[in-house]
């Protein structure tokens, strides 16, 4: 969530970009105007999506998101797009599935939801 959005929802004192401190931090500002942003990291558990983004057909894809990502990759940025197997990210996948798609309000957890606690405990054992 950008500072501009947070500010509109009274979650941030100012809409100003926390990186350049000059303009409101909107998605457009962050992705194209902010002089401080020159890195883009994206992760996906969909191997087909990653392959499509890196394919020769990406610039003319019927999917607007793929075309937009292709344009971002052409900018003077360091762009890293990686595939993360779903099994390697079970806790995040489970958290995403807990969201109600019709509810856009902020949901704060003061502890790990029961559905996620198991994955956290297993990760601790692996360390």
From TrEMBL:
RNase H type-1 domain residues are 36-99
Which InterPro entries does UniProt cross-reference here? RNase_H-like_dom_plant (IPR044730), RNaseH-like_sf (IPR012337), RNaseH_domain (IPR002156)
Question: Can you tell me where the transmembrane regions are?
Answer: none
Q: Which Pfam families match?
A: RVT_3
Q: What is this protein called?
A: RNase H type-1 domain-containing protein
Please name the taxonomic classification of the source. Answer: Eukaryota, Viridiplantae, Streptophyta, Embryophyta, Tracheophyta
